[in-house]
Design a protein that fits this description.
The structure holds 2 protein chains of 2 kinds.
Chain A lengths: L7 E10 L2 E11 L4 E5 L6 H9 L6 E6 L2 E2 L3 H4 L2 E4 L11 H11 L6 H8 L14 H13 L5 E5 L7 H16 L3 E5 L3 H7 L2 E6 L2 E6 L1 H5 L5 E6 L4 H5 L4 E7 L2 E6 L3 H10 L4 E7 L2 H15 L4
Parallel strand pairs in A: 3-8, 3-9, 6-7, 7-8
Antiparallel strand pairs in A: 1-2, 1-4, 4-5, 9-10, 11-13, 11-14, 12-13
Helix pairs in contact in A: 4-5
Chain B lengths: L6 H6 L9 H17 L2 H21 L7 H34 L1 H7 L6 H26 L8 H13 L1 H14 L5 H15 L11 H5 L5 H12 L8 H25 L2
Classes of the chains: A alpha/beta, B mainly alpha.
């Protein structure tokens, strides 16, 4: 095996649940030192993909490789950390007890003090799980995911229910881990999270990859700039301008989508001297994502 | 601790990490299971409080203690069977149903526990609780109950109570694999109480209606009670080894059915 092969990979994986195809010939590699964000609408197959990589689900076709072996092997699990989307811990066990339990599964766990410092769960060590707030429970689950010093980390919707501060500190830890060479697979509904963390984005729709690349590349899909101003210019006329892909009006506001901003802005200012409130914005990942998934859905021939 | 290794090499280096002892993981898991059960009233009350309370009431205070030593010994053996049913059924049934429903079972499967540790830890803790209940019941019997037996008989009774948990664990496992978490305690009680009654553990079978008594051999608790009867020197129906085999077969069937149900639910 070459040293540049991915830490974990799905190759040509098919997974069906009854007549429902969850994953359709999916190939995906997770690289060391990178956050790979898996995005997609509900039911796109993200959780199934994680289940396959964890060895919880067996593929109907294709191969799943994790840390140089088949998924789910004990040796691989000892180097893997996981935060599932919905896994409640026993209500009566205390935070410290749960941390010591899960640390004990791993050959080289992080010291408790380090985990507490990284995740901010130190003040709750003697509290039973049921007494924690939703955000604290999520923090503990994150702490359990990283407590074994993993080389491969699965984070399934990690920041759902976290306040902004807790989310920021989780992001900081994620960045530190990737800097140390950890391979991370992240699924999230918050596109700004993918934007903030991911080196690579994979967009999944109905079990197929419809787009993949860096955040920049995904963002560049289709329209690149949004121009907004107050102007009386006719929408129909602007739509005919070069580089403009669409123009709409909402009361006095004019909204223009275009591939490049500068020539359109120049022409706007030249045509309407009374124009005010001009703003230019890059397309966010969220808008690109919506467009990509919508296109994928309309292309789909299935019912 | 920073790893200065090239990330690709780090990712694919053979697993040189020091291994984790399976025994240590088992002990950790068992300890956490123990704390969990100890803190769950839905487990402790039917498992520890009820058998003790009822033995004290029916086996000693209202029971035929000094007048009929034979009957007193039979009551002891029967209540030890009752005391060994509940830990098995409730320890596995309640926790498994809850773990399954809350997604914890899935997380545990993803965590690096050697295969089987999860269930073995639960089984061991069921046996531990059965041992505690058995010691408490035998303590009551030897003091307030005034029962005296040769030490080997006490030991055999204790072993019967602790090992006898296994088939009831398998029943609990099956219930836990099939039933919703909030229904599990009720379903387990619905099996546990009628089954112990119909096996003649509370009231001797000869006082039950003929029709019900005839079906007693169907119940695992009756089978275990026959082993208990043999231990205290009262002639059981059939050989104790045959009853133990029936229990073993039942455990195997329930265990296999539970595994199947769990696999299908994935």
């Amino acid at each position: 095996m070459q040293s540049d092969s991915p830490v974990a990979a799905l190759s040509h994986v098919v997974k069906r649940y009854g007549s429902q195809v969850a994953l359709d010939d999916l190939s995906l590699g997770i690289e060391a030192g990178q956050v790979t964000a898996l995005l997609g609408p509900n039911g796109a197959g993200k959780t199934t993909a994680i289940g396959l990589l964890l060895g919880l689900v067996a593929p109907d076709a294709g191969a799943v490789q994790v840390l140089g072996g088949p998924a789910g092997e004990l040796a691989a699990r000892r180097r893997t950390g996981v935060m599932l989307q919905s896994a409640a811990l026993p209500d009566t066990l205390r935070v410290g007890e749960l941390l010591q339990l899960v640390r004990g599964y791993y050959p080289r766990p992080r010291p408790l003090a380090e985990i507490a410092a990284l995740t901010g769960i130190g003040a709750q060590l003697s509290q039973p799980y049921a007494r924690l707030s939703g955000g604290q429970q999520r923090r503990l689950q994150f702490a359990l995911a990283i407590c074994g010093n993993p080389q491969l980390l699965f984070l399934d919707e990690p920041t759902t229910g976290l306040d902004l501060e807790a989310r920021e500190s989780l992001w900081t830890v994620v960045r530190e881990l990737t800097a140390r060479g950890c391979a991370i697979l992240l699924t999230t509904h918050y596109l700004e999270e993918a934007e903030a963390l991911a080196q690579r984005v994979v967009v999944l729709v109905r079990g197929r990859i419809v787009s993949e690349g860096s955040v920049e590349e995904i963002r560049a899909h289709g329209v690149r700039r949004h121009i907004r101003c107050i102007s009386n210019l006719a929408v129909e006329e602007i739509r005919r301008w070069p580089d403009v892909t669409n123009a709409t009006r909402a009361q006095q506001w004019l909204e223009i989508e275009s591939n490049v901003a500068e020539p359109v802005v120049q022409r706007l200012l030249a045509t309407d001297a009374s124009l005010t409130e001009l703003e230019v914005r890059r397309t966010g990942l969220a808008e690109a994502f919506v467009r990509i998934t919508r296109e994928a859905a309309s292309k789909c021939t299935c019912p | 601790m920073y790893m200065s290794v090239n990330s690709g090499a780090l990712a694919l280096a053979p697993d040189t990490a020091p291994s984790v002892s399976g025994v240590r993981v088992f002990l950790l898991e068992a300890h956490s299971e123990f704390l969990r059960l100890l803190r769950a009233p839905s487990f402790c009350v039917p498992t520890i409080a009820f058998p003790l309370m009822f033995y004290l009431l029916f086996g000693i205070l209202l029971g035929p203690v000094h007048a009929h030593p034979e009957a007193a010994r039979a009551a002891l053996a029967n209540f030890l069977v009752i005391g060994s049913m509940a830990p098995g059924m409730f320890a596995l049934g309640i926790t498994l149903a809850s773990d399954r429903e809350r997604g914890l079972l899935e997380l545990k499967r993803a965590l690096p526990m050697p295969p089987g540790t999860y269930l073995l830890a639960k089984l061991a803790m069921a046996m531990l609780f059965a041992a505690i209940v058995a010691l408490l019941i035998m303590g009551l019997a030897a003091t307030l109950g005034g029962i005296s037996l040769p030490p080997t008989r006490w030991l055999l009774l204790f072993a019967m109570a602790v090992i006898g948990v296994v088939p009831f664990c398998a029943i609990g496992l099956l219930v836990g694999a099939l039933v919703k978490a909030n229904a599990a305690p009720a379903v387990l009680n619905l099996i546990y109480l009628p089954m112990s009654f119909l096996s003649g553990l509370w009231v001797p079978l000869r006082f039950l209606p003929q029709g019900l008594a005839r079906f007693a051999p169907l119940w695992p608790s009756w089978q275990l009670a026959q082993v208990g009867a043999a231990v205290i020197g009262q002639s059981p129906s059939g050989s104790p080894a045959a009853h133990a085999l029936v229990l073993l077969a039942l455990a195997a069937v329930c265990f296999a059915a539970a595994q199947r149900a769990l696999r299908r639910r994935r």
